[in-house]
Amino acid sequence: MTAAFVLPFGLPQILPLFTVDAVQEAASYLSANAAAVLGTAAEQPYGPGTAVAVLAAWTLVFLGAGYAALRGRDS
């Protein structure tokens, strides 16, 4: 339960504090940033089409994790 809140809400606040370029690039592909790009129709750092794909990928990641936890605990 904690990871479900820390990953989407905590990481976007923490990762921009690091000065490593790879971390900055990874932070731009978090769900909060993709939602901001989609909500404002901005073209930076990527367009709305990529933002939808990023949000879909995050949805699949969390659904997959939930499915794996359900199958592992309740089988």
Give an overview of the whole structure.
With 75 residues, this protein is mostly helical. It has four helices and no strands.
Molecular shape:
globular
What Rg, in angstroms, do the CA atoms define? Answer: 14 Å
Biggest β-sheet strands, sense, barrel? none
Number of helices: 4
Mean pLDDT: 85
Percentage beta strand = under 5%
Q: What kind of oligomer do you see?
A: single chain
- The helix fraction, in percent, is over 70%
Low-confidence stretches: none
Distance between the termini: 20 Å
Structural class by sheet pairing and helices: mainly alpha
Write the layout of secondary structure elements.
Layout: H1 2-14, H2 21-27, H3 31-40, H4 48-73
Keywords, please?
75 residues; mainly alpha; 75% helix
Summarize the model shown:
With 75 residues, this protein is mostly helical.
